[in-house]
Design a protein that fits this description.
Aspartate Aminotransferase, domain 2, Aspartate Aminotransferase, domain 1, 2 domains, 5-stranded mixed β-sheet, 12 strands, about 15% strand
C-alpha cells in the first residue's frame, strides 16, 4: 500500500496497524526488516552534505533516525491520525521531550495534579531547576485550569485517565483554554490507548505514549512516542531529540511494529475482561471504592461517554484496612502477579502508595487520591473467570 497520509486515512485502523509505514529492502521481505546499524554510507561528499542539510532524503545516524524506527513512527502516525511521530527510548523520554522542547527560563507550565510519579517530578521539580515555573491543579476543575494560566504559560499537561486513580479530564475543554491562552496542550494517553481516545481530534496539540505499556503489551521492551503536527514536531521536538539523544533502539522498534499488528485484538479483549472483573468487584464487601472508566458510577461518566469509545484495561479499587489489608491481598493472589508495569498480556497488580507514588508525602498522595488502601489492577489476556476466582480467594484473605 501507499504510505501517503491520504491512502492511510482511507483504510480502517486495524489495516493501518498491519501495513502503514512499511518500507521493503531490495529483498522484498514480508516482515518489516530490522536495521541494526549505527550509521549509513553516502555515494559522495556532496550527497553527505545534502543529507545533513535535509536536502537529500535518507538516513544519517541512528541517534537521528533509522529505517526500522521510521517505520514505527509512520505506522503510529497513520494510526493516531497525526502528521508526524517521533519515537523515544522510554515513555518518560517522550513526556520530557514533549514538554521541555517547548519551554525556556521564564515560562510557565500548568499540569493536572493526578499524574504518574515521574511525570509529576518533571513538572514539579525538574522544570523549575531551569527557571520554568509550574502549577498543579485539580484536573477535573476547569475553573482551576483557567485561574492557573498566566501570560507566560506555554504548556498545559495532563493524563486522562490518570495513573492510578483513573480520573478523567475533559480534554476538549482544557484544549480550548490552552488555545485561548496561546499555549499548547500535551496529553498522556497511555491508559486510554489510541483505540479508545483520540486527543488530537479533541483539540490537543500533542499526544505522548509509553509504548512500553499496551503498544508492546507483552512485557518485553521500553519505548515512547510523541505524536503531533509536522510543525509542532519540527519546532519543538526534532532538535531536542537529535541533540540530547533519547533514541529508540531499532530492535525495540521492530518488536513494537510486530506488536501493533495485534493491538486491537489484545486491547479489546482486555477491556472486555476488565469490565467483567470490575462489575464483580463492585459487589464485594471488602471494597470501599471502585473506579473503572467503563462503569456508570465513574465520577466523570458523562465526560467518558463524550470523549472515549471504550474503557481502559485498568481498574483501581480501595480495600478497608489500608496498607496492611492491601498487602495481604497482593500477597494472596496466585495467578495475578505483583508488578509496577501495566498493559501487559499478564494481569498485574500493585500498591501505588508504596511504589509508583511512594516518593510523595502522605498529604500529597491524599490530594492526588492515592490512599493507603488503593490497589491498581491491570487486566491481561487470561480468562476473566480465572481472574475473578483469584481475586475472590485473595479478598477472603483480608
Amino acid at each position: 500500500m501507499s504510505n501517503s497520509p491520504e491512502a492511510a486515512r482511507a483504510l480502517h485502523p486495524e489495516t493501518r496497524l498491519v501495513h502503514a509505514g512499511t518500507m521493503r529492502s531490495q529483498f522484498g521481505e514480508t516482515s518489516e526488516a530490522l536495521f541494526l546499524t549505527q550509521g549509513h554510507v553516502y555515494d559522495s561528499a556532496e550527497q553527505c552534505e545534502a543529507r545533513f542539510l535535509n536536502k537529500d532524503p535518507g538516513f544519517q545516524y541512528a541517534r537521528f533516525s533509522n529505517p526500522t524506527v521510521a517505520m514505527l513512527e509512520q505506522r503510529m502516525a497513520a494510526f493516531e491520525g497525526s502528521e508526524a511521530c517521533r519515537a523515544t527510548a522510554t515513555g518518560m523520554a517522550a513526556v520530557t521531550a514533549a514538554v521541555m522542547g517547548q519551554v525556556q527560563a521564564g515560562d510557565h507550565v500548568v499540569a493536572a495534579r493526578a499524574l504518574f510519579g515521574s511525570c509529576r517530578y518533571v513538572v514539579e521539580e525538574h522544570l523549575p531547576r531551569y527557571g520554568v515555573d509550574s502549577t498543579l491543579v485539580d484536573g477535573t476543575d476547569l475553573a482551576a485550569w483557567r485561574a492557573a494560566i498566566r501570560p507566560n504559560t506555554k504548556v498545559l499537561f495532563l493524563e486522562s485517565p490518570s495513573n492510578p486513580t483513573l480520573e478523567v479530564i475533559d480534554i476538549a475543554a482544557v484544549a480550548a483554554l490552552a488555545k485561548e491562552a496561546g499555549a499548547t496542550l500535551v496529553v498522556d494517553n497511555v491508559f486510554a490507548t489510541p483505540l479508545f481516545q483520540r486527543p488530537l481530534e479533541l483539540g490537543a496539540d500533542c499526544v505522548v505514549y509509553s509504548a512500553t505499556k499496551h503498544i508492546d503489551g507483552q512485557g518485553r521492551c521500553l519505548g515512547g512516542l510523541i505524536l503531533a503536527s509536522e510543525a509542532f514536531i519540527t519546532t519543538h521536538v526534532q532538535t531536542f531529540l537529535r541533540q540530547t539523544g533519547p533514541a529508540l533502539s531499532p530492535f525495540n522498534a521492530w518488536v513494537m511494529l510486530k506488536a501493533l499488528e495485534t493491538l486491537p485484538l489484545r486491547i479489546e479483549r482486555q477491556a472486555r475482561s476488565a469490565a467483567q472483573v470490575a462489575d464483580w468487584l463492585a459487589g464485594q464487601s471488602q471494597l470501599t471504592r471502585l473506579i473503572f472508566p467503563g462503569r456508570a458510577d465513574h465520577p466523570q461518566a458523562a465526560i467518558i461517554a463524550r470523549q472515549m469509545s471504550g474503557p481502559s484495561t485498568l481498574i483501581a479499587f480501595e480495600v478497608a484496612g489500608g496498607k496492611e489489608a492491601a498487602f495481604r491481598l497482593l500477597n494472596a493472589v496466585k495467578l495475578i502477579r505483583i508488578s509496577n508495569n501495566l498493559g501487559d498480556a499478564k494481569s498485574l497488580i500493585v500498591h501505588p502508595a508504596t511504589t509508583t507514588h511512594q516518593r510523595f508525602a502522605a498529604e500529597i498522595r491524599a490530594a492526588m487520591g492515592v490512599t493507603e488502601g488503593m490497589i491498581r489492577l491491570s487486566i491481561g489476556l487470561e480468562h476473566p473467570d480465572d481472574l475473578i476466582a483469584d481475586l475472590a480467594q485473595a479478598l477472603a484473605a483480608i
